[in-house]
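Need tokens for this chain, all 733 residues.
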Amino acid sequence: MKSIILTVLLRVQKFIFQKSKLHFSFFLLLSVFISCQHSEIWNVPEVEFISRIRHGDREFLRHLDYENLKLKEINKLGSGSGYYMSYVYESIGMRELCIAMLNLESKKSGNPWSLLSRKRLISFLLDIKYYKEAEKHILRIIKLDPESFEMNRSLVRALYRQGKYKEVLKGVQKLRGIDSAGFEEDLDLSLYEAVSLSRLKKKGWRDLFSDIFLKKKTSKIHYRAYTYLLQEDLYREFDEIERSWFKAKSCTADAKYGSAVEIIDTLYKVPVKAFFTQRNIWDLYRIYIGSGRVSSGAEKIENAAKIMLERNPERKDLYMAMLDTSGRLYRRAKRYDKAMELLREALKYSIDKSEYDRILWYYLDSSITNSPEDAVGELIRYSKIWNDPEYFYDLFDRICSFLVENQSWNKLYELYNAVKRDLSGILFERYSFVAACMIKDNLVAYNGDRKRKVNLIYKEILESNSSDYYRIIVSCITGKEIKIVEKRRVVGKSKNTLDKIVSGFLDYGLLIQAYNLAYDGLKDLSPYMIRNVCYSLMKDGRYLESINLIRNAVNTPDFDLKREDYLILFPEAFRKEIRAAAENEGISVPVLFALVREESRFEPEISSRKGAAGLTQLMPATARETAWKMGIKDPVLDDPIINLSIGARYLNDLYKRFGNISLALSAYNSGPSNLRRWQKEYNELSKILFIEAIPFVETRNYVKKVLVSAVYYGYLYEDKKNDEVVKIFLPNL
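Here are the structure tokens for all 733 residues:
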């Protein structure tokens, strides 16, 4: 900051001297700055201290003699200094200094950092089990905000850990009044209340423990609750059936599914009231999946459902839950006919709309897997009665690929006409585009003017504005140019408290903290600050975070993408290295930039779950083989230059093998053997429909994403028109 002030002062010096009345003001400001040059923080020149912290040089903090220093000197850094320095100290593992900084900042008043520091301090104190000290700080915040669920919950936790059970019960009642729904979802609070009642020997504790085990989704809380009942010898207060289920639930929470199954298998003949609740029935799915006894679990639950309905015909809700769970287990066991039978029956008894759609999704998914051709009729039938069409979009996406792959054009066209009113966004564009291809290429019967119909569909796609891919493709087919980037200058200023807090993180070199807070608070952050965080992340080479932040910012109010934002979305990272690798292999520069963007977001040390590594996400075996051909021994895949060189060579090899960049990209993502199989199965398709037929969702979307990114890179950095880049992928479009 001081260096910035000096720069500004020197630049305006000439102007100020021309105004004699301002002579004194200039010298006053200059003298203040010079005095700052001699100011110190903990025996370190203030300017040096600020510079080192901002640039991530924090090791010097370990070697300061804090016993002989005044911690308050940190306040010279300005508002929130203690709060931000707590993160700095935490990053180097100095927790005691972290807490000291928070204590210092929390004593201030009239600024947002004081409250933030107190909350952060409370979190630390609870973690290190300083419950009494935490209680003191919590009460101060509650005094200012009595209805804060977060703080009242923290208070209950602190009181519980101190054994203040009467106060815990009072706190629990208050939380119920503040947010009853939030309270019911919080299993920790249920356990605090149950334990407190049992400790005080008050009525109701037994019923609360029963509710925890019979009505709540399995979690680690059940293991803790069961352990408590055993340790306090309260286990005997429950009957044998309840104890068995409590133990099964505890085993499930502890991932001991085999033990849980052995217990559960003895419980199917017990009275319904003692064991079966909807929550427990749905938990059985997890237990049988975890134990590997899927088929036997499905059969046992199906048989139990029949017995239960005979004994308790009024409990249709439990009957539905058992059919649902058994059907889903049959689906996992790949017994799709049986799964469909039970799920279809379960739909008859489902009352809740979201529950109905969920069961219907499993039914239709089983139908598609069992017989995709027959599933078309089921999709059309149920499209008239489902509640939320978007819930089923993944199924529509999946069956579209199957029908294209098998060239079932009439079925696909029938489905399109029946459900297009329910489709929106990219799925609407996909079905519409494929329909246009079918009509244009005479793949389906159509009585009207084919050209007019196709143009009408193209017009709808261009106006949909949901997917860059289909809009770009259609614009190239029709010759109607579309603007993919707006050319307007970005304006905006910081305007709120959150901006100031995020800005502070940037000033202290805490980029990840700035990113996390900005990401979580996008709706409340000004466009100016969102972009400021992105620029700081890019400067530090954190392109993954900057891309994610600006991409999510698009969905917030008052944020319109400008040209500058596209430079964040599609950064020219590793510019020299990528251009050199592309030119060496004769690959289009925009294509290689796009590949790296989609593969790694320009993170050189990133690795996937499957083991792919580096900027171009090479599998080790592929990298070694390609590197050997290039004369490179023991390639280091997190080295950008080496990784890019090998990745570009591998892509070029695939291009030479398959003769088309879109096919090469398919092989790059899924493996050459998969691509060769697809070519044999549906090589008669045009290249554009071939992409739609790719059965792997990841690969299909990958090719489309690389194409779109390449178009943007070509436009932003190469001044290329859309069709120039698209023809690299689809030369005969």
